[in-house]
Amino acid sequence: MCQELVWMADHMEQLDGVRMLQAKDWGIEDAELILFCDACPVRMGFWCELGDVTLSFQCRIDDRSHGILYFEALAVLSALSFALQASFPPPSHIVVFTDNSNTVNMFNSLKATPTYNPILMTAVDLLLQFNAQLRVFHIPGTENHVADSLSHFNNDLAYNASPSIIINPFTPPRVMLGAELL
């Protein structure tokens, strides 16, 4: 917990004050980029539509020391990292849908147990670095079929759902405290 407090104090010291005008309420209709995520115990996936192309990513998980909630949250962080680092200019309003309500609550409250704090801290670092805002919403699993297909590496189902889909591998961002992001 000491690392988290030092991280927060450093950020508070470096920030230029409360951004009242930029902290306006906004919704899905204001998003510049919308992404969909999912994870299973051994894989993660996310996707978004960019014009007439559906761009998607999937990753195998070699780490068995964390549970599914960790990887659901890591999938959201991976989508956010892609959104901010792969676009020029990066979007300022990003929406991510996930079928895990605990992950939605974690990102919307920025409150988690210590295991998940590095994921949230990395997300905040990215949002501050790129001057962006994030909203995470729940989507029922039955409506999250493309992300589910990607996270299970069932690419035939993903292609059936979206014939223009382009599937790429990805490596999730590092979430160690003090580490540079990928």
Automatic annotation (TrEMBL):
Highest rank taxon of the organism: Eukaryota
Against CDD domains, the record matches this protein to: RNase_H_like
Q: Which GO terms describe its molecular function?
A: nucleic acid binding; RNA-DNA hybrid ribonuclease activity
Domain spans labelled RNase H type-1: 65-152
User: Which stretch is the leader sequence?
Assistant: none
Q: Which InterPro entries match?
A: RNase_H-like_dom_plant (IPR044730), RNaseH-like_sf (IPR012337), RNaseH_domain (IPR002156), RNaseH_sf (IPR036397)
Its recorded name reads RNase H type-1 domain-containing protein
